[in-house]
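Usage

Read records sequentially. Each one opens with the input sequence:
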Amino acid sequence: MDTPPEPAIDTSDPRPLIVHVIYRLQVGGLENGVVNLVNNLPQDRFRHAIVCMTDFTEFRERIQRDDVPVIAMHKKPGQDFGNLRRLYQLFRQWRPAVVHTRNIGCLEAQIPAWLARVPLRVHGEHGWDVNDPDGTNTTYQWLRRLHAPLIHRFIPLSGHLDDYLQKKAGINSRKIRRIYNGVDTGRFHPGNNDALRQGFLDDNNLVFGTVGRMHGVKDQLNLARAFIALHRLRPQQAKNLRLVMIGDGPLRQECLDELRKAGLQDYAWLPGTRYDTPDMLRTFDVFVLPSQAEGISNTILEAMATQLPVVATRVGGNPELVDEEHTGLLPPANNPQALAQAMARYVYEPGLIARHGRAGLERIHEHFSLQHMLDNYAAVYNAHNMRR
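and closes with the structure output:
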């Protein structure tokens, strides 16, 4: 494939075109953030296109505008110079005002954006790569440093990532603007989902739940083992404890195997990928995020907006979201026993569920509104006029 796809783009349209470059459009926090931007930035002020370095899934159907092309570049594994050429041709053809790449897997797209003289080049840092879960990979640090002269603005989504860019990658602080994710409280809000809670998830059960791709640093195996440990901690209440793990990936089967070996397969539900996350969250009593590493987790924000207490491992940006002992708990990562003890707090003290849930919802409204996020991104994108 030597030439890029050619969707209709009206280059005479005065509204600035923002080209979002992501690795793959699929269910995930990063991808959800892109879709929120596309759907909610004022249509009379911005146009958008999404370029996927590899491919896209039916998740593209979450885009509500009908004027947003989604392009799959089908990049080959490893270094694909042909893909860089195709990106350059695409940027020359579309003449975007802004190219916004995200995470290390898309960083190389800044080279063709620079060659195509895109006025404003932005790079977002949303979280750690599966091959660099703690940010210590020196090759990745140098790649960011080498690309920095081509990039006008870096956008880390957490203070942890902000520190990484400055201290590990050597990025000048003047190039950095931290923007926290915002949550769409129109989709994610408190409520009951009695239809889904019937039977397996009935009102007599205490449901611990999580949502996310089941691979690598998300470490759902940690949660499966913690749930097994929790049953051993509270055997007299174990019959009413339930685990729901929404998502798919290689860890799903491993979790199923662990639960089956412990005889708890009937106490857990792992349905794979679902596209009704807001409804599913409203069936949970406590949200759990067992990750080894995180940037700023959309799912934590969505859970808090649903008025759920959050148990999240103390990694990355999680402590910036969860106010410990006020909106949730922060056990250490890679420690199923510690995670089980944190989950047990809500079994011992059921009143904490309502208290922490209410406090989390208040925190969303005060600090993590969707409108605040949109205003910050609009301010960055409008800077393209100063680069012409």
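Summary fields computed downstream for this record:
- The first strand starts at residue 17 and ends at 22.
- Residues 17-182+370-387 form a domain with the Rossmann fold fold (CATH 3.40.50.2000).
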